[in-house]
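SAMPLE LOG
Freezer: B-3
Tube label: C17
Construct: single chain, 291 aa
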Amino acid sequence: MPLLEQLELILEKRKRRDLLRSLVVASSSSIDFSSNDFLGLARNKLLQKTYLKELSSFPNPPLGSTGSRLLDGNSSYAESLDKFIAEFHKAESALIFPSGFDANVGLFSSVPQHGDAIIIDEFIHASVHDGIRNSRAAVITKFRHNDIKHLKKVLEAVVQEIGPQKNIFIAVESLYSMDGDIAPLNEIVEVIKPFNSYLIVDEAHATGVYGEQGRGIVCELGLERKVFARLHTFGKALASNGAAIVGPKLLRSYLINYARPLIFSTFLPFNSLIAIDCSYKIMTSEVGNEV
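STRUCTURE (predicted):
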């Protein structure tokens, strides 16, 4: 059977299961229940004014980044923004990626070493699944959503399989996008403490919404030092695009060397970096508290 006929058959099967996707343009008169613009900043007049003023302060800003961060795509502005994001989210370092998807894929595909294990919440984002699929971990398994007792059982079983010396990575979201529920991070931190474990928290949907000035749930709970790495994205509440991994300085250096989506992807354009910076400025202002 020719390839296009195979693809057509696959799509037809998906259609019969009412799972066929398509691109639509939402009507301006529709009530929006699907937007990630949680704070309404995408059309906020003050943010737009702040952004245009900042952009105009650069006499000849490039339209594109012109390359990967490891080549011409990096800039002093990006480096300064990395440092600000790290300080804001109370971490040693931050590294901006072109997208949250890229950041998760880069992190989970490169950091787990041979013989390690990855345990994911069953509702974790698709980007984590894609990342772990390309990892070197010996064991990849999941625990029932937000079920602490089951997580402990899975941890014990994993240790029996790989031994106590290997690393175990636990991946959760602080705020789950589909159900809107929050991970019991305090309990997770306690249950994983006896193990050689590293907690990674995806804060994509909590960034800008939870915690002081939108720092996220990890900061709200004071767990910064008990979480190995966090993902903060800018395409939701912050009304821009891109994302950052925050964590130890050594992790940043490692990702610069081994995270392929960072190394081989064109970086964010300069205007996106300005938009991210301006969104943070709004969040840390008195106006941000009102928003």
